[in-house]
């Protein structure tokens, strides 16, 4: 199997990214799709596009995707998942401030104290593939988000994850817990590049091994509700 990744940017600012793990026979079709996705994007004109193909050498871990839910409010979900309002307020500040973190920020679910030391980089979930084995179609965007959310929540110390896309016209965010992926509508104004991903955890988590799992372990996420 091969890990195939794409990222595009303008003036070194990230525009678009995508990745999967596939058989050798599917690489060509995948990079064609990724070229279209990355080169023509509403976030701006692309002046750099990178395609990366790497043989997967570690065993791939398989996970069932979280179930998708609608119609919950963020406040209820936060409360049910054991995240304090103080932590949520701090999380929203990281999403709204002028810094565009390149990955997720990890906060203590009780106090909102930042636990990772990745500064403006953040922690990125990478080396994954999403497989839809259900009859219902999911947009590429939801597939990516569901795959990332499933990986993030696959740890006993994780309470929840709040994500708002930095795409200009996409205002639907989500809050995911180990029990489900909850879509949240109208999370920001349109035409805003504000966005980010916050992971709320119990602060006794072994951060190095959790981050290594998110960033390095090859992961396959199966959607079959
Ligand atoms: N957001 C912003 N910048 C990103 C980025 C992202 N998602 N991914 C990569 N970059 C930029 C950063 O400047 C990064 O340098 P850094 O490690 O110091 O932050 C640089 O590109 C190189 O990153 P690298 O991890 O080597 O890139 P890659 O080509 O191996 O993987 C992605 C690129 C986009 C596939 C991967 O990083 C990623 O984010 N995967 C998650 C899936 C995804 O993005 N889905 C789309 C929407 S949710």
Please, could you describe this protein's structure?
With 225 residues, the chain is α/β, with parallel strands linked by helices. The chain has five helices and 14 strands. Strand 11 (173-177) and strand 12 form a beta hairpin. The longest helix has 14 residues, at 140-153. It is globular. The model has no long low-confidence stretch (mean pLDDT 94). Bound molecules: coenzyme A. Coenzyme A (COA) is lined by residues 5, 7, 14, 17-19, 50, 52, 102, 121, 124-126, 144-145.
In short:
This protein has 225 residues and is α/β, with parallel strands linked by helices. The protein has helices at residues 27-39, 74-80, 85-96, 140-153, 207-216; strands at 2-10, 13-22, 40-41, 44-45, 48-55, 61-64, 68-69, 105-108, 128-132, 158-164, 173-177, 180-184, 196-201, 219-223. Residues 5, 7, 14, 17-19, 50, 52, 102, 121, 124-126, 144-145 line the site of coenzyme A.
